[in-house]
Amino acid sequence: MLTTTRTFRRKLDLTRPVPREVIMGCLDLAVHAPSGSNRQGWRFVVIDEPDLRAAIAHYYRLGSAANLSGRVPTPEQLADFESATYLADHLHEVPALVLACQSGRPPTSPAKLASFYGSIFPAVWSFMLALRSQGLGTSLTTAHLAHERAVADVVGLPFDSVTQVALLPVAYLRAGNVSPGARIPAERVTSWNGWTSSEQTQ
Questions:
Q1: First to last CA, the chain
Q2: How far apart (Å, rounded) are the C-alpha atoms in residues 138 and 131?
Q3: Which residue, 97, 96, 98, 102, is CA-closest to 165?
Q4: Of the candidates 171, 182, 184, 174, which has an alpha carbon nearest to the alpha carbon of residue 139?
Q5: Which member of 84, 93, 155, 196 has the lowest number of beta carbons within 10 Å of its beta carbon?
Q6: CA distance to 116, 185, 199, per residue, from 188 (Å)
Q7: Cα–Cα–Cα angle for 18, 20, 142, nearest 5°?
Q8: Phi and psi dihedrals of 46, rounded to 5?
Q9: Distance between CA atoms of 85 and 71, rounded to whole angstroms?
Q10: DSSP string over 94-138
C-alpha cells in the first residue's frame, strides 16, 4: 500500500458518490498521527456540496494556471503536466474535497515552521493511506493556497487563526491495477555520516 499510494488525478472516478461515513472513517484513522507536543491542532473541512466545490475549484484553477504558466515540461514531465491540467479542469466534479488545516498561522522561525507543518502532514499522509485502503484515492494539492483567503471566505474559515495546508480531492478509484510510481532509488539520495551531493551518489 505504501508504494501504490500515489498522486491520483485521472484515475479518480468522478461519477461515484463517496459516503460521508467512509470519509469520516478515514479521518478517524488520520487523527491518530503524531503531532508536536501532542497538540492535535489539525482541522478538516469536508466539502461535498456542489456549489461550494465549484467555488473552490475556481480558485484552484487560477492557482494551477499560475503554477504552470511559462513552464515548458520535459518529455518525462509531460504526462504529469497533462494530469495536473485534467484535475484542475475537473476538480468541481470530484465527489468530495477535504481542506486540511492547522490551528494558528505559520511562524517565521525555521524550527517552529518545521514543527507547525510537521504537526499536520503526518495526519494528511495517514488520511491518504486510509483512503487507499478503502479503494479511494486522492492527491495532495496546494494550488488553491494562492487564494487562501478567498477559499477561507467560501467555507467560513477564520483566516487569521487557521491555516490551510492542503486540498485533497477524494474519490473512488476507477477499476484497474495501480502500479508503484517511478522513484529515484533511496541509495542515490542517501548519505552516511555526512553530506554527499546527489551527483556524488549517482
A1: 28
A2: 8
A3: 102
A4: 171
A5: 196
A6: 29, 6, 9
A7: 75
A8: -100, 125
A9: 13
A10: SSEEEEEEEES---SSHHHHHHHHHTTHHHHHHHHHHHHHTTEE-
pLDDT of residue 77: 76
- Mean pLDDT in consecutive groups of 10 residues from the start of the chain, 202 residues: 89 96 98 94 97 98 89 79 92 98 96 96 97 96 97 97 98 90 89 80 52
Identify which of 1, 2, 13 has the alpha carbon closest to the alpha carbon of residue 176: 13
Tens digit of each residue's pLDDT (9 = 90 or more) over 76-102 = 778 888 889 999 999 999 999 999 999
Give CA–CA dist 7/145, Å, rounded: 18
Q: Which three cell numbers stand for residue 127?
A: 488520511
Cα–Cα nearest to 162, from 175, 147, 149: 149
The DSSP symbol for 173 reads B
SS3 171: strand
d(CA 173, CA 7): 12
